[in-house]
Design goal:
CATH superfamily: P-loop containing nucleotide triphosphate hydrolases
CATH class: Alpha Beta
Helix content: 25-40%
Number of helices: 9
Number of strands: 11
Distance between the termini: 41 Å
Low-confidence stretches: none
């Protein structure tokens, strides 16, 4: 990646027009409640990165490999080819049925950092989602995780996306995590008339290329993927 590809686009025309390309390397925090679109935004940038020649490691606690690839294909993000040639690798972390405690959470957080450092042939790392791990973790372990992620971005020039549910964190912790990141997306769900849409706010966008908007509303159409709504609707 050094000296070659310095920006990542989502390859969704409207998203890229409103947000701009993301200057690599970066640490991106994507936060929002259930069903607000965190995974979809992560998958859109995964698709964009792969098509621009980046190697991507996708670490998921939300689904399995086959289900992830199929769900992406259903919203026009076909990554099967990249998976087959090894440009995309998917790690499944089965966390839902474990008996969680602070020690186990600490081990998982440490394992993710070590995996990223060991598998350093990749350019972009997606962690979707971190919520299960941090819900049971000590504050010091969470801060250490984000500090290590920050060091990987700065020292190894890697780009990392992390999705979280904000309810899993104390407000002071959220503020500290946001300050460590270069890019910050906040997702929410909004009711407009009789329609429910997703709202994306971008309060922090370090190194972006001419962003023209920091708030947008979108829906997910199976035929077209992410569909950004007119700004007038986003403010309705």
């Amino acid at each position: 990646m050094r000296g070659r590809k310095r920006f990542i686009k989502s390859l969704n025309g409207e998203l890229d027009r409103k947000i701009g390309a993301l200057r690599t390397p970066f640490l991106c925090l994507i936060e929002g409640p259930n069903d607000s679109g965190k995974s979809i935004i992560s998958q859109q940038y995964t698709y964009g990165a792969l098509n621009q020649g980046f190697k991507v490691l996708y670490i998921t606690t939300e689904t399995g490999t086959k289900a992830l690839i199929n769900s992406m294909e259903q919203i026009t993000l076909d990554v099967k080819y990249f998976f087959l040639i090894g440009q995309l690798q998917i790690f499944e972390l089965h966390v839902r049925n474990l008996e969680w405690d602070k020690e186990l959470a600490s081990k998982f957080l440490d394992m993710i950092i070590k995996a990223i450092r060991r598998l350093n042939r990749f350019d972009v790392y997606i962690i979707d989602s971190l919520t299960y791990l941090v819900t049971y973790a000590d504050e010091k372990d969470i801060l250490n995780f984000f500090t290590e992620a920050r060091n990987i971005v700065d020292d190894l020039e890697k780009s990392i996306f992390i999705t979280i549910h904000p309810y899993a964190f104390e407000q002071d912790m959220l503020i500290r995590m946001r300050s460590i990141c270069d890019v910050h997306f906040i997702l929410s769900i909004k009711e407009i008339g009789d329609k429910i849409v997703k709202l994306l706010q971008v309060p922090k966008l370090k190194g972006a290329v001419k962003p023209s908007s920091i708030t947008l509303s979108f829906d997910v159409d199976p035929a077209f993927g992410i569909k950004v709504l007119p700004f007038s609707q986003a403010k309705a």
